[in-house]
Design goal:
single chain; about 280 residues; alpha/beta; 2 domains; 5-stranded mixed β-sheet; 5 strands
Length: about 280
Amino acid sequence: MYFLYYSISMKDVKINLYFPDKTPLNKKDLLEIIVSEIGDDEEIGYAGFVEKTQLREHLDIFLGDNIELYRPLSEKEKQQLKNTIESTIEKSSNFLNIPPISIFVFPWLVEPEGFVELMGGINGFAPYKKTIHLYLTPEQFYPKNIEKTVAHEFNHTNFFNNHGLHKMDILETLIFEGLAENFEEKISGERNVIAKAIDKKESKKILFQIYPYLNFEEDDFYKSLFFDGKEYKRWTGYTIGYELVNAFMNKYSTISWEKIMEIEPREIFYKSPFAKKEEV
């Protein structure tokens, strides 16, 4: 038998763990085992996707291609995972309301070098306002990194609750990720490496270089600014977003996190001192 589903309830939070007890023969087997266990929920669809085929395609990308890296989680690790997620949500609830939310934890089978090491063995994704995906590399099981990722993705779900789920342009995405990075720092007490990929002066310089592209919705420019590390250093978009939101929060320090999350991204951007040429 495979251990596929593990659920706890903390207020309106459900944690769903999809780590088979035995190592599947190949990635296809693992993918089908996981997908077959996820049903259609009237609130969140198939783990945040409308169609099961969409979920399968998404997991196919995120699971990775190295089945030899897979191993089941121990009971101790399962308990640590549960405790870390619960404590992170509890901390987060001091600043933001907790919506009904489902957290899905999947294997992330990517070679532990470069990107994976930078991410601390865990990746996250918020496909919908009531859904969080966590992708965990079994050999890099670090509770502190889990806390950071949960806080980051929890902030994203709160954003969706306030602003809806829609295609965002570069300006909105900078604020969207900047909010999550600042909230992550608030909860974990540490600024993430992706929020300090470049220094403040360079962030300011690049921000004004990309002003003509702030209304763009093209995926290629988004990937270039945030991820691929070619034209811009990897994570540049996250760092610029962090600086924009951090400057806004420092200027309007009496505004609560609840109220900040209700403000339209463009208002945050244009009221941020970091978006003004004369200020740093």
